[in-house]
Design a protein that fits this description.
Elements: H1 16-19, E1 26-29, H2 37-42, E2 59-63, E3 66-76, E4 79-87
Antiparallel strand pairs: 1-2, 2-3, 3-4
């Protein structure tokens, strides 16, 4: 019997246990704003910077700069958190 060399691999990649300890950067993007350097220099404490999304739109969850999921912003013990609502494409 010939073993399938990729049978212990996920999607033909390294087994998950080999990379479980690898750290990745996770970002939750609420939205973006575009402004000039002059407008940026005028910002002061208490100013409001409008972004390009409404409160009802999902936030992007990015890993190493790539969107992998979307979610809604919630609070947990007086801290912000994100509840995942979509995963993948």
């Amino acid at each position: 019997m010939v073993e399938n060399p990729s049978s212990d691999r996920i999607g033909g990649k390294a087994p998950a246990k080999l990379i479980d300890h690898v750290e990745v950067e996770v970002e939750v993007m609420l939205g973006e704003a575009r402004l000039t350097v002059a407008a940026l220099n005028r910002l002061a404490t208490g100013d409001v910077l409008p972004i390009d999304r409404t409160i009802a739109e999902a936030a992007d969850i990015r890993v190493n700069g790539r969107i992998i999921a979307r979610g809604e912003i919630v609070t947990v013990d007086d801290k912000f958190a994100v509840r995942v609502t979509e995963i993948g494409d």
